[in-house]
Amino acid sequence: MAPNPLQLYRVHTDALSIAEVARTVTVSFSHDPLIHWLRPGAPLWARNDARTQAWQYRRIQRALLDGIVFRSASTAQLKYVFRSGGETPKQASVTTGCGPDEATDAGVVALLFPSKRTVIGRLKTVFLSLKLWVLDIIRPVVDGGTNMERVEQMMNSHKLMMDRIKSIHHLDNVWYLEVLAVHPSLQSRGLGGKAMNWLLDYINHEPLVLECTSEKNIGFYEALGFRVVEEVNLADNEGAVKCWIMLRDARRKE
Fold first, then answer.
1. Residue 3 lies in a domain
2. Could you give the angle at the alpha carbon of 51 between the alpha carbons of 73 and 53, nearest 5°?
3. Nearest CA among 53, 57, 45, 50 for reference residue 18
4. Which strand ranges, in their side-by-side order, compose the sheet holding 9-11?
5. Could you tell me the residue range of the domain that residue 40 belongs to?
């Protein structure tokens, strides 16, 4: 098997890195069906919208409390390393395939959550937890246009889904991948598969769950060893969206 040159790095509390991660999540999921359902009638997430970016920044900070945030090098750097078609190194170094401001955005982002946390892991997040608690009081941020009843339905569905998977498949410890984002300027370069393989190695191929929100992406995950174990319909009187819950259980594969 060819080596995987893609490297992901753990994000801690560096403000610049969090901002670069937040921007990539924004542009990567602006057209996601689940996001559209959660924000009915609202404008698409935009990278240059200050309110959206403030909310995404706080979202990444919260992910650091309970999970692990990973990022790759910038979009410009990855475009140089992972060239597409007949592109030459010289062309890749000059043309990033995105706006000049986007060249510094994180090329690949992942938000990964363990089923269990160590005592040390909990202690490390005490300060950040207190900081966010204060910020939510003195400087709250919201994602404009979000339907909070739909968000609550999604969160309740997620909790029930995780409990069912653990019970039905007899899993005591299962990881959850909330986000795997490849910047739009880097699409069709195989980075999604490389990032997923990197993450699978990181968790030692332990059981991993994700929610696929686009049917066209199911085959991509199946090629990596996942299978659909549940289909979830989120709906109210004004609209609906479907998610495919996928599990990669290393024990079953063996």
1. no
2. 5
3. 57
4. 9-11, 68-71, 108-113, 175-182, 208-212, 239-248, 227-236
5. 9-253
